[in-house]
Design goal:
Layout (H helix, E strand, L loop, with lengths): L1 H9 L9 E3 L2 H10 L3 E3 L7 H9 L6 E4 L9 H17 L5 E7 L12 E4 L5 E5 L16 E10 H6 L7 H6 L4 H5 L5 E4 L10 H13 L7
Parallel strand pairs: 1-2, 4-8
Antiparallel strand pairs: 3-7, 4-7, 5-6
GO biological process, one term: lipopolysaccharide biosynthetic process
GO molecular function, one term: 3-deoxy-manno-octulosonate cytidylyltransferase activity
Pfam families: CTP_transf_3
Length: 223
């Protein structure tokens, strides 16, 4: 699975380099045998953002992209969409510090706490991420659109280096969502929409679903 993710990231022409960051010696051995770049990180990194912060202190770049190793349905189009607001903002003279992705949430996933939902402003700034069903359809109109957050991020170096210095967030602890630390400390997250869903592999069922799609050579949105 890790090989699928690594190769998909390498297929994105906008990335100058791809590196696996892990605290597992077993993963390091696998990566080296496969010819993949890899860095061993401390075991006390509490989140993927903390792990990427460790990398950013040692590998210089303007923008860092964080892709989870359990996202085998990653496509180059995901990373293109993720970087679009950062590139556009740089051209216009403004600055996006953190960006991420969302896709329409399937009806059977709306109440699933493993499918994180996100609500945004009209121009794409995240208002909140939650495992709960947001927004709440109080009058049960059936007309509410839900967006599922995809756990892929891009950070400018300045934002990434600030992350460990930001006060830990009560909402972050309650939801177990590290991105809420940025929002609670006044750092905007831009959410770009993509038609391509992914499956984060957390269970055997997830793994089976992802393998079926990969063997068919299709993304979720194409099924």
């Amino acid at each position: 699975m890790l090989a699928w993710v690594y190769r998909a990231a390498r297929a994105c022409s906008q990335l100058s380099d791809v590196l696996i960051a892990t605290d597992s010696n077993e993963v390091v051995d696998f990566a080296r045998k496969s010819g993949f770049q890899v860095m061993l990180t401390p075991v006390d990194c509490a989140s993927g953002t903390d792990r990427l912060h460790f990398v950013a202190e040692r590998v210089d770049a303007d923008i860092y992209v964080n892709v989870q190793g359990d996202e085998p349905l990653l496509r180059p189009e995901h990373i293109d969409a993720l970087l679009r607001p950062m590139i556009s903002a740089s051209i216009s003279g403004s600055e996006v510090l953190v960006s991420t992705l969302a896709t329409p949430c399937a009806p059977d996933q709306v109440s699933n706490p493993n499918a994180v939902k996100v609500v945004t402003t009209g121009d794409g700034r995240a208002l909140y991420f939650s495992r709960a069903t947001i927004p709440f359809d109080r009058d049960q109109t059936g007309m509410v659109s839900y967006r599922k957050h995809l756990g892929i991020y891009a950070y400018r170096k300045s934002a990434l280096l600030r992350f460990p210095t930001l006060p830990a967030s009560a909402l972050e602890a309650a939801e177990r969502l590290e991105q809420l630390r940025f929002l609670e400390n006044g750092i905007d997250i831009h959410v770009e929409l993509t038609p391509y869903d992914t499956i984060g592999v957390d269970t055997e069922e997830d793994l089976g679903a992802a393998e079926t799609i990969l063997l068919k050579g299709a993304s979720i949105s194409e099924n």
